[in-house]
């Protein structure tokens, strides 16, 4: 359920305080555990280390991200792959086809 419009977007005050100490365009990574914080225009140009439950994922904020939440850009689950034996055979065939493309034919 989304937040009420009359309350407005929630931005972590601690995060805004950390940003105010930095210069715009500074490459310092600001670590945060606040995944539910809405990205505001003041955050554009900074790099945030958003915690995904294990590590801090660096997220560079651009203008198109304003209005979204920080957690949307730091995935908490890692996709390995689907399939088993059949998928493995397909990957081997694809690797062989790629290898055949890169090897030039022998000159006559």
TrEMBL record:
It holds the Pfam family Ribosomal_S19. The keyword Ribosomal protein applies. This is Small ribosomal subunit protein uS19. Belongs to the universal ribosomal protein uS19 family. Keywords: Ribonucleoprotein, Ribosomal protein, RNA-binding, rRNA-binding. One of its GO terms (biological process) is translation. One of its GO terms (cellular component) is cytosolic small ribosomal subunit. Protein S19 forms a complex with S13 that binds strongly to the 16S ribosomal RNA. It comes from Candidatus Azambacteria bacterium GW2011_GWA1_42_19. GO terms for molecular function: rRNA binding; structural constituent of ribosome.
């Amino acid at each position: 359920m989304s937040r009420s419009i009359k309350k407005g977007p929630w931005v972590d005050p601690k995060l805004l305080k950390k940003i105010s100490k930095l210069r715009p365009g500074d490459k310092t990574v600001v670590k945060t555990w606040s995944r539910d914080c809405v990205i505001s225009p003041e955050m554009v140009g900074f790099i945030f280390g958003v915690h995904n439950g294990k590590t801090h994922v660096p997220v560079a904020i651009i203008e198109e991200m304003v209005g979204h939440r920080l957690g949307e850009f730091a995935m908490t689950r890692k996709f390995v792959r689907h399939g088993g034996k059949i998928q493995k055979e397909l990957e081997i065939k694809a690797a062989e086809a790629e290898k055949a493309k890169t090897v030039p034919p022998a000159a006559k």
